[in-house]
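Workshop exercise sheet. Pairs work together: one partner reads the sequence aloud, the other fills in the structure field after running the prediction. Swap roles for the next sheet.
Pair: D.N. / O.F.
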Amino acid sequence: MFLWTKDMIDFMQDAARYGSYQEELSDWICAELPNAKHVCDAGCGLGFLSERLCRRFPRVTAADISDGALSRLRNWKAEENVLNLEILHADLMRFTPDEPYDAMVFCLFGRMEEILRIAKRCGAGTVVVVKKAYTHHRFSVSNVPLQDETTEQAAALLRARGVPFTLETREFDMGQPLKTLEDAMRFFRAYSKDAPGALTKEAVLRKLTETGDEAFPYYVPQRKSLGRFTIHTGNIPEEFA
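Structure field:
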């Protein structure tokens, strides 16, 4: 299970407020779900995507195994008096809904084989899966290979299992705004996968640009390439049931 720290939550909230990435990502995902009524945001994390799904669909279930991550979404739901959002604290590898969702979204969550099993058990319609379409860790000061499943690897698994899909790749601006140089060091300590000793102040400074923005004078520029898979649960083989 991914463990959210307070620093990670704070940095993610700053990034969500600063740029247009979350809105662009939501538009891209929702384009594949024109007729959905009840959408499950599987592995929703802090729930930034779930917020945007609530504006578009009659019912949304935001599910995650981390109760700490869900607490942010609970606060937002209460503050905004959101009535069409169910927040579900559950392990989706073991959970089965009373009625299947007619659409499911897996955004940077799980490996494709796990996703197929969850979708086959919990869904009865369109499945949108967003995967990383790059091979090296974005927020490291050195060249560190990515350990997560990539778009290319996920596509290879679908072909091998005979699962029809469509795939589109798109690039987003998903950098990190920072308030101070100390925040920059904390950010890289939280997210980098560098070897001990590589994460020096000089190395971090080389990753920053100055913005002229009083609130966030520093920025870590990053272009993030993502792959969007669209699958239908009826095309997932019974072996995944």
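Discussion prompt: The chain has a mean pLDDT of 94. What would you look at next?
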